Structures are given as structure tokens and as C-alpha cells.
Amino acid sequence: MSFHVxxxxxxxxxxxxxxLHEPLRQFCADLGLTGTLLLxxxxxxxxxxxxxxxxxxxxxxxxxxxxxGGRLGRLELKRSTAAVMPFGRLKVRVKRxxxxxxxxxxxxxxxxGSYVDPADWNALLATPDLVLIDARxxxxxxxxxxxxxxxxxxxxxxxxxVAMFCTGGIRCExxxxxxxxQGFETVYHLKGGILAYLEQVPAAESRWSGDxxxxxxxxxxxxxxxxxxxxxRGQREGQSDA
Length: 242
What we know:
The longest helix has 14 residues, at about 15-30. This protein is of the alpha/beta class. It has helices at about 15-30, 50-65, 120-125, 135-145, 145-155, 170-180, 195-200; strands at about 5-10, 35-40, 45-50, 75-80, 90-95, 115, 130-135, 160-165, 185-190, 210, 210-215, 220, 225, 240. About 30% of the residues lie in helices and about 25% in strands. It contains seven helices and 14 strands.
């Protein structure tokens, strides 16, 4: 038996996130889902696993059910599979942010950079003088906070075109909103993140090297979002070769 995994997010006004916490937790528990789901005033972010029928029911509730009343019509959701259940339990939490940036004035629901479809990403990488930023966790740990990195390393007068990628797209949404607020005019980000790129771009055309770390028991995924059971935790993330 294989399990289905749904990774999803959307930035949208959710002032009632605390009220939604228990009904959503109970809904997921009744479906036998495991994983982590975050609610915050700025939106929702989660990765949950269960049977195919349970993930279908979850997607239906998020996008068309009564809990969210149609607020998640632009939900970014990607599905993959796992040979064994990748999470040990269900965790539903209310947080101040679904992606920690530390600047409450940044609201991706009001505007983000330009989305680039995975099929067009390779062509974008050939742009002269393009600044390419890996916005994932390891990058943030190495460089400090993202705003600090921008202040130290980037200049909107010099860096005229900035492109970013991250695991599922969510960090780039918020980071691109921040860059726009700092005066950067041309900001791109990979729609759906590395996961969408691995899913949609044929391996023969891929510019991706290595595996993509995921935050569950599978550790890493490769082209076609296939599990990479030989991946070693610690050799966490592949890199773009651009």
C-alpha cells in the first residue's frame, strides 16, 4: 500500500485562524491524516499524508468546503506518494506567520514577484546578469535572516533582475514580496518551487542536480517526485547548476 502526500499553501487573510484550529484538526484526524499544518493570520501551509481518498477529501474541503468559505480558491497543492507513512502523527498549529520573515508589514496576498512556470525556468536562467537566490532553509541558516541578506548583498540599483527558487514555492512568495517592498522592480520566482520543476520538466531537460530534501520521512525526492530512499539525511539538498 502506498500513501499520498499533499504539500499545500496559500497566503490569504485569515483573522479567524485560532477559531479554525480545532475544527480543522478534528477534520484531519477523522481522515487519519498525519503531518503538520500551520494556520496564521496570513494564510495556511501544510504537508499531510494519508490514503488517496483522505487526501481527496482534504483537498475538497480546503478548496470548496465550509471551513474556509472559498478563501482558498488559489491554493497551491502538489501531490506525491510514499511507500510508507512519512509522518508519525498529526500536528495542527496556530502561528504568527506561516513563513517566518519577521516583518509583519510584508503581505504576499497584496503582491508578489512574477511567477515563472517550470517549463520556462531553464530559459530564464540564461538571462545575462540574473541574480539567482536559493531561498530554502539551509540558505537562510547560512546567511542569517532574509532581510539581513538583502541589505548586505543586494542593491536594487545594481541587481536589476532577481530570480528565486525554493522547495514548494511558499518561501519565494514572501521573499519576493519583501524584495518588491525594498525597491527591486524585476523579481521572478519559480511557480510551485523545485517540486513542481521536478514533476513537470523531463529529466533529460532538467537543470537540477541531486535530490530535493523534503520535511518528512522520505528525506528526498528526485525527478518525477519519486522517492530517493538512498538519500542521506545531512546531504540535504541538491542545487541548481546555473
